[in-house]
Amino acid sequence: MWLLQLTWALAALGITGGSGSVPTAPPPDTASIFADLSAAELRAVRTFLLSRPELGLSPSHGGSLAKNTLFLVELLPPKKRQALRYLDQGGPRPQRQARAVIFFGGQAEPNVTEVAVGPLPQPSFYRPLRFKGGRSIPFTARPMTQLEYELLHRVLAEALVPLRRLLRDTTGFWYHNGTCSGRDRQRCLTFSDVAPRGLASGERRTWLVLQRFVEGFFLHPVGLEVLVDHRDPDPRRWAVQRLWYNGQYFSSPQELAERYERGTLTVAHLPQPPARQLFSSYEPRGHFATGTPTDVHGAKVCEPQGRRYRLRGNLLEYGGWSLAFRLRSSAGLQLFDLRFNGERVAYEVSVQEAVAFYGGNTPAAMQTKYMDAGWGMGSVSYELARGIDCPDTATYVDAHHLYDADGPVRFSRAICVFELPTGVPLRRHFDSDFQGGFNFYAGLEGQALVLRTTSTVYNYDYIWDFLLYPNGVMEAKVHATGYIHATFYTPQGRRYGSRVHSHVLGNLHTHLVHYKVDLDIAGTGNSFETMDVSFENISNPWSPGARVVQPWSRSQLPQSLAARPFCVRRWADLTPVPRRYHLAVTRHHDNEPSSSSIYTQNEPWQPLVSFESFLRDNETIENQDLVAWVTVGFLHVPHAEDIPNTATPGNAVGFFLRPFNFFDEDPSVASLSPVIVRPLDPPTFSRLQIQRWTPASPGPCVAPGPFTYNGTYREE
């Protein structure tokens, strides 16, 4: 059995394995069937689709929304059955194909269509892809593009002309009709948009939060929010429908401007931001009371005898572990064919969705229900900084995305791999003789291999980690950092968060992250078992009349769908928030590859992918090919210490995959890194036998001398 353990759950949840062969670890070539598309393959797909006259594709940038454009190209993974036939049985190599998303805006009934394109690297066909249920994709469900933002900017700049005096008088900034760069940037306003975009299916109405365009502008709302209807492909038909300023609603910019001119408007005058040490910047300010140095480098990770992992293409190997990985433009990291000592543990472990539900008094805050796959969560994998985002010793991997672009875009150092000292032994024991000495000491230092990327979804930065431990444990973890989603402070807003600066409210919100865990333990025929701990009060068998209270374990094998709800009462009645679960276990189906989609953000009322439909099947889950869907999350009530950014300590969640009676013993006994110390002359302890299977000293980057130990504890 392999144990699936949530970091905050009490119940033990496991997957039991059936009979099956034990295939050997795959060579690098087999891992490549899961590799992301290369820049050449991305270009080939785009060139092929643009050459098809019936599609009528135009460049993405510039022009109108009323045109047909190629929005996204990424790998279309092979069907699981085909992949396993190739990996385990020597079957034919699956044909390499791409998934392409096309916006058909240049027709009477605009829509979005997905197609499979192949075979790569020289495509010659395309065919439509269908969602479960066969529904078409509404044009209003499409993600935002750079072109649509540019058009929104122009419409907003024109609409806010009547408010130029109000904004200049109260903020010292105004909204420019054009580029905002150079000296003008010092007095520019910008905006952030929230979603869902409307209140019902088919709408595309977005609340925009006006902010000063300074460093960390997310923390500089000016008190004005604007609702724009931009449903029509023709921006000439877009319109401002409502405005909110400093706690009051207005039907038009003219109404707000007239109220200001008449002197009947309650205004908020904002102080001018300083030129240096702005509160939203990273510039150092203040001091630590102890005076200990911070102007020198802190502790670093080093590899004294070189790397202990192997990275070949998208195949990663470490100790007993091997896996293939990719970075989807749509949703982020995806692991395939995860094995330990050559035996498959999971066919797929992947990030599915990250959502954040907000509350607030302003219209933008109360409307905000972010679903980050709809913002290209995997495509915003910007460069990782050596020595900060990843240790100096890390290996870096570039990524190529074709997402809202007219060609592949290279993201340097988008992924990093490194071995991390955990700072705590993997295991250790001091065997005392209870007379001031010891019988032996043994310990194995703790290390893990980390596969990491980040997603900067506008204000928030998510740090995505998969950690591999030598004892057969895998950890999936995400840290939340970056800027909080903040709105303008009013006294009525206090119940929805904290006042983090003079005119800034940090809005409370809940983060939820969804993972897919397709476990294949000793084959695909698995069952789901829960283990709960209860207490019993029984008669003491060896002392009549006495009682014993003790724990006992109870195991169950649900035969049909298993789901454990996540705050169902809190979220069940909220529209458009879907119900979420700590854990749901379903049977694998090729038409259920993911629990969300890039369209859910802008069409949450009738989502193209409804996770609830996965659960309605109520199929048997005994001795079947099973998928565990895991939700982890936390409540974030922002506070002053979230300025300038939310810090990672205390803002991380995840889950573990742990072997449970799968091995005969801890598999990390195969490691040659333990140290064993035995006294040779007790009780004097002047001579010790130190056993180790690595060099006596790790090298000058850690400590120049060899390992030493004493182990005695005596009165002085």
CATH architecture of the largest domain: Distorted Sandwich
Main sheet characteristics:
16 strands, mixed
Beta fraction of the residues?
35-45%
**Tertiary shape:** globular
Quickly name the level 1 CATH class of the largest domain: Mainly Beta
What's the N-to-C terminus distance? 51 Å
CATH superfamily of the largest domain: Copper amine oxidase, catalytic domain
- Rg over CA atoms, rounded to whole Å, is 29 Å
Q: Into how many domains do the coordinates divide?
A: 3
- How many strand segments? 38
Helical region count? 9
Helical proportion? Answer: 10-25%
Structural class, by secondary structure, is mainly beta
Mean pLDDT: 91
Question: Low-confidence stretches at least 5 residues in length (pLDDT < 50)?
Answer: 7-24, 566-578
Cofactor: Cu cation
Domain Copper amine oxidase catalytic: 300-537, 580-668
Signal peptide: 1-20
Domain Copper amine oxidase N3-terminal: 184-247
Explain the overall architecture:
The strands form 5 sheets. This protein has a 16-stranded mixed sheet that branches. The chain has 3 domains: 91 residues, Roll (Nuclear Transport Factor 2, Chain: A); 117 residues, Nuclear Transport Factor 2, Chain: A; 357 residues, Beta-galactosidase, Chain A, domain 5, CATH 2.70.98. The chain is mainly beta and 716 residues long. The protein is globular, with a radius of gyration of 29 Å. It has 9 helices and 38 strands. Its cofactor is Cu cation. Belongs to the copper/topaquinone oxidase family. Its EC number is 1.4.3.-.
